[in-house]
């Protein structure tokens, strides 16, 4: 009868007869759980690919009948059930950071604000509020990507000055786009009518 072996952490064969019952039980359990985890991970990936495929097919079918965009800008789609209690969101998120040009942009915009300090009209106050809000930092001293992007897109032409235009160009130059992440989210409304996310990854025990 051929002798059975287990490989230890150094890659050496160890006869099963030399392995304790506890180690054999632990080995069997760990291998079983890891295999199940790999299976679930594969099922999760296959499910996400299926979601993307089904949503893309749906949008393609809609395009035959309507020249419309569903649920937001291109690449970010929200589909809702007929009763409004379930929804699927598929989107693309860019990993964005800022280069040193963001500091130049801040100084340029603050220069515009300083030039408006003596003006008390609503337009001047709006410009002040826009700039101060956009360059507000968090506890770690980081700028909000959302606020900077809002300043860049929504208020790009809100003030007619060379410094304002130069500040916008500095923001454009400051953007550093890293990896792009595609995501899919599932939500249901609870008894209070609020959206609650259905996690695809288990929460901590």
Automatic annotation (TrEMBL):
Q: Origin, by domain of life?
A: Bacteria
* Alphabetical list of Pfam families matching this protein: DUF3164 (PF11363)
What's the name of the protein? Sulfate transporter
Taxonomic source organism: Pseudoalteromonas luteoviolacea CPMOR-1
